[in-house]
Amino acid sequence: MSRIVRDPYELLGVRRDATQEEIKAAFRRAAIKHHPDRNQGDPTAQSRFAEINRAYQILSDPGHRANFDRFGTDPFERGGVAASGIEDFVDLSNVDGVMGDILSAFGIKNPDRKKVEYRLEISFEEAALGSSREIRYARLDHCKTCGSSGAAPGTTLANCRNCGGRGKVRSAQGLLPIPLERPCPTCFGRGKMAQTPCVSCRGKGLTKQTRTLEVNLPAGIEHGTARVVEGEGNRIKPGGGFSDLEIQIVVLPHELFERDGDDVRCRVPISYVQASLGGEITVPTLAGKAKVRVPPATQSGSVLRLRGQGVSHRLRAGKGDQLIEVFVEVPSELSPRARELLVELGQELGEDLQPQQRSFMEKLKGLFG
What we know:
Layout: H1 8-12, H2 20-33, H3 45-60, H4 62-71, E1 90-91, H5 98-105, E2 116-122, H6 124-129, E3 131-142, E4 157-159, E5 168-171, E6 180-183, E7 192-194, E8 206-217, E9 226-229, E10 245-251, E11 258-260, E12 263-270, H7 272-277, E13 279-285, E14 288-294, E15 303-306, E16 322-328, H8 336-348, H9 360-368
Helix pairs in contact: 2-3, 2-5, 3-4
């Protein structure tokens, strides 16, 4: 029985001289747009999606594309010489490629691509100024006992009984309504099984191993940031590559400083004399100590600013500022001479130093009168 194959260039909406990247991008857009789950109630959605998949299989394979350019659709009709490599299923073995992007749009993830997550606690200074940290974590890698074969040393491998040695199985389960081809879950896509499994990896070919890595933290990194280090996660499968390592940054609180964007805030006490007469005080900064001038008649809660003493900007040169909130500290103990001087000051300023002699109602009248 023959099958009509439409022009793949027309289906994907690309020129005949389109590059592979342009073909991949067009396939991604078309597959997401015409996926049956996004077109429920449309009886033609499944066949249209299958056509798009066939078109991509033709144009993504140099040999198939050359045959189509030379002979047209005839070789790809069912029974034609070129039709043997064109199927009505989606190959999930390359789920990290274009189809991986499409499946991710529908919430389908490849369990073999599970990344490694690591929680890294750093100090306030490390986050603000940048640093380099060495981390140690566990990830899946080739089993050292069996050399990733999954078989006990000295034993042999046999064809997987589930996939017959192909390493792939077909399934119609999941969101996609057409048969899917995916790595065999029994042999993990290898096509071979250990007759006597390795005791270290239980026949999987992968074991948890400790990995040491130097991590560079840029100046200005924020709490809650996720830094992804490509290729430093779990090995996906024996003989395959690595997934990614995701480092969750946790910035520990500081006893003096708080971050406000790229500015740094702190609170510093000053005396009543400094607040009244002004002067110079020493304050802590991220780079050490610095001096800042307090203007005369500074009120408690006033904010002073040190330019360029904050956190490095991430997208431009320079740094934020340090904002210093001052508060007037009242001494808990006074010497007789200090009390005498304060009384004289109060009298000079016309302050009532004997409020206990006024009734509560008189105080209220004074406040609102």
